[in-house]
Amino acid sequence: MPGAPNSPPKTTPEVPAATVVPEPPEKVALRRLVPMRVTLLLDMWKGAPSPDLTGPFEKAEAAFAQGDFAAALTSLDRLSVRFAEPRWPIIPEPFRSLRVFIFAPMPPHWNPDHALPPPEKDAKKARKTAEEQLALARGCLDWAAAHSIDTAELTPKLEVAATHLAEPGGLAAFYEQIDAIWSGLHGRLPAPKSATVRPAPAAAAAEPEEA
To answer: Which residues contact residue 1 at a Cβ distance below 8 angstroms, ignoring those fewer than 6 apart?
Structure first.
């Protein structure tokens, strides 16, 4: 309108990002510790995984028992990288998601999610992690049932968790069920046995030189 005072353009108010509440480290560690234990119990290792795999796992278990969850997660990180090494048999699904490959650095724009807004990127990552947790929990319960380990009170929690995952904003309720499964399984699973490393043959004693 002619003569009207200039007014600044209207702007859309910024929506503050949701506050991320750190999860208890013992729960974060247990979500990896239990499925990694089952992975080391799979028949693919013929009952005795390499000490290169059981070593980091045993360190993680010891640190977890002592309440040193940061050290437990560090050992589990090492085991995840070891799982990805090509010298092992191919780990079946859903346990394959526990592997972590070390790739050469690449430009950020090569990542298809790079351009997403941070809240959307975080939500997508959280969803993928939850789906992997659901698949791992199902795989661990199936393994336990196949090996005559009683999981009668844990199995129904799996379907409750799946229902919560399908609901908007249901992640907190989802992890209540998933964490109960991991806590229940942790004390019931046998410890993986490590393959025996044979000592190198002793070198033959050198014969004395002739005078």
So the answer is: none
pLDDT bracket for residue 105 (50, 70, 90): low
User: CA triplet 160, 76, 128: central angle to 5 degrees?
Assistant: 40
Q: State both tokens at 22.
A: 């750190």
Q: Does the predicted model carry a pTM greater than 0.90?
A: no
CB of 143 within 8 A of CB of 38? yes
Distance CA 69, CA 95 (A): 22
- With a pLDDT cut of 90, the percent of the chain lying above it is 65
- Per-residue H/E/C for the chain: CCCCCCCCCCCCCCCCCCCCCCCCHHHHHHHHHHHHHHHHHCHHHCCCCCHHHHHHHHHHHHHHHCCCHHHHHHHHHHHHHHHCCCCCCCCCCCHHHHCCCCCCCCCHHHCCCCCCCHHHHHHHHHHHHHHHHHHHHHHHHHHHHHCCCCCCCCHHHHHHHHHHHCCCCCHHHHHHHHHHHHHHHHCCCCCCCCCCCCCCCCCCCCCCCCC
Question: What distance in Å separates the CA atoms of residue 77 and residue 99, rounded to the nearest whole number?
Answer: 9
CA distance 194 to 50: 6
Burial class (CB in 10 A: 0-12, 13-18, 19+), 46: exposed
Torsion 7-10-14-15 (CA) sign? positive
Q: Are 140 and 34 in contact (CB under 8 A)?
A: yes
Residue with tokens 């702007």: 11
